[in-house]
Design a protein that fits this description.
The protein has about 240 residues and is α/β, with parallel strands linked by helices. The protein has 10 helices and 8 strands. It has 2 domains: about 5-15 and about 90-135 and about 155-230, 3-Layer(aba) Sandwich (Rossmann fold); about 20-85, no CATH class.
Length: about 240
């Protein structure tokens, strides 16, 4: 039976992640792709923010994002570079078919991402996903193309849980009737807040807490395999 609401992570779930940037700790994302594009020094500084986060050096997720934005400004991120990086991120094979199946079966769909609103907007529009929460929206100067302002939301770790609970409350749907699909250790908290959770080619921390685990060989990832879990008879596939 399909869940009434299916919450999904974005990068590594609906979108492919940059495997060459995966250090096995913080899952790679467009944040790191941007730093890579801005040069070796920017990438080194961005990696240092990950170490600081893992060591408890930031008070909140927003503070971590603010530090990363400082790097983007320092190395002169422009709207052109930002758009090129955002547009370079590819859809996960099978993602469109999986989401279409979710909708055909009447599920409400929602994206939860600690990444960029521009990326979430693209996927929400293309896949016709009902709701989306993302961490960062950038505003660029129309004349110079330079980054001049931003909007930040606490949409990762505990922030994902808050969003899930708010959407469930709006629809009057219990957590037992909801599912989550994700791939990284930052999804652990939200995976515990739903009745069914799927670790999709995920980091070990998430695999340990999820109801189901899907592991596929690199280069053969396909999100449509998730539909078999939802269509299996009660009691599991």
């Amino acid at each position: 039976m399909y869940p009434k609401i299916i919450f999904m992570d974005l990068e590594g779930t609906l979108l492919q992640k940059a495997i060459h940037l995966d250090d096995g700790r913080v899952a790679p994302s467009a944040w790191t792709l941007l730093a890579e594009r801005l040069g070796t020094k920017a990438l080194r500084e961005e990696q240092a923010t990950k170490d600081r986060w893992l060591n408890g050096g930031y008070r909140s997720y927003i503070e971590w994002m603010q530090d990363t934005i400082r790097i983007h400004q320092k190395y002169h991120l422009t709207s052109r570079v930002f758009e090129e990086v955002i547009n370079s991120v590819q859809e996960m094979p099978g993602a469109f078919g999986a989401v279409r199946r979710f909708h055909e079966r009447g599920s409400i769909t929602a994206i939860i991402s600690g990444g960029f609103k521009a990326l979430a907007d693209r996927v929400q529009r293309d896949f016709k996903i009902h709701h989306a929460l993302s961490g960062c929206e950038y505003f660029f100067n129309q004349q110079t193309g330079q980054l001049e302002h931003w909007n930040l939301l606490p949409s990762d770790y505990e922030g994902k849980v808050h969003f899930v609970k708010a959407i469930m409350a709006e629809y009057g749907i219990s957590k037992e009737e909801c599912a989550f699909i994700g791939d990284a250790q930052n999804d652990v908290l939200v995976a515990k807040e739903v009745g069914l959770s799927v670790a999709f080619n995920a980091q070990p921390e998430l695999q340990q807490v999820c109801t189901y685990v899907i592991n596929q060989t690199p280069g053969n990832e396909n999100l449509e395999e998730v539909t078999a879990i939802f269509e299996a008879p009660a009691g599991g596939p």
